[in-house]
């Protein structure tokens, strides 16, 4: 069976404007969108550019818009589409070429929330002879595990209208990752991250549209993380208000 | 890191929410506040009328009974129920509850909130029945 997919092309060397190009290709029940793009590249038009690597929804490289909805190419099957299939680069990111977008801003947002264990006061200095590992109970793990499944594919940023309206918004994945470390029993960096989260471009830009969680291929539920972050940020503000905390001043300096 | 080192796109157009059903439902959820504002203005007018005296109060009662106002307030009731339905589903995701270290299932939290609505409604009808 043959199906037609239309791809939004942008080849700045040849044309200043983007244009649509239709490809007809053979498909069966197991043909993923990524298979289709590979078929186009190998058989029909070698100038098509797109990103991919693992083809099993773990590298997070092959995100594109399918009929206006952000999807991973490898996790999208053409059998689920009758009629028109329109493929575009991920929304809300600058397009570099064809389906390849510039994700620099997303990486900046990720780095800004310090997504790593912060432990200024480890129990003991590291001793290579008798290394001491962190201990964590299954219950402590369960508090953040869901938010640790993010593969940084960026689909949630393409789903988020608030990020589309204001790219300075830290966005779903970055805030979900901040929340993941804030919830981790081994981490002590919550205070540092709060300065970043508890401001307009942090959690407070979110209006719980919730589409980010709908499109997330790993069921991270970033909308839940962001809104749990609002509860934490509100607590932080209240505590700072009564304690006259110096952290509040630092948070304001960012605004 | 230089904050503006990466490229920025122009912001979305005002009609961004017309693109998908999902965004339209979101805007519907947010728009439920509009009929509720009308209902609150009615209530405030009622309080002012109460202070002004019996004639004014009777006028307000008549106003509240007019078909257009009744229809608008029925719309406000429907809007608040829709908003409650969406809010109750979101609640367990924002405030996951744990009792004795075990997290409560989402549908139990949602059911609990609806049970609260029923209790308040029953209390309201009981008070209304006594008056």
UniProtKB/TrEMBL annotation, chain A:
Enzyme class: oxidoreductase
Family matches, as Pfam families: Fer2_3, Fer4_8
Catalytic reactions of this protein: a menaquinone + succinate = a menaquinol + fumarate
This protein's pathway: Carbohydrate metabolism; tricarboxylic acid cycle; fumarate from succinate (bacterial route): step 1/1
Family: Belongs to the succinate dehydrogenase/fumarate reductase iron-sulfur protein family.
NCBIfam families, per database record: dhsB, PRK05950.1, PRK12385.1
Protein name per the record: Fumarate reductase iron-sulfur subunit
Lineage, highest ranks first: Bacteria, Pseudomonadati, Pseudomonadota, Gammaproteobacteria, Oceanospirillales
Automatic annotation (TrEMBL), chain B:
Electron transport keyword on record: no
Transmembrane parts of this sequence: 69-91, 111-129
Gene3D superfamilies on file: Fumarate reductase/succinate dehydrogenase, transmembrane subunit
SUPFAM superfamilies in the record: Fumarate reductase respiratory complex transmembrane subunits (SSF81343)
Name of the protein this chain belongs to: Fumarate reductase subunit C
Keywords: Cell membrane, Membrane, Transmembrane, Transmembrane helix
Source organism: Halomonas colorata
InterPro entries: Fumarate_red_C, SQR/QFR_C/D
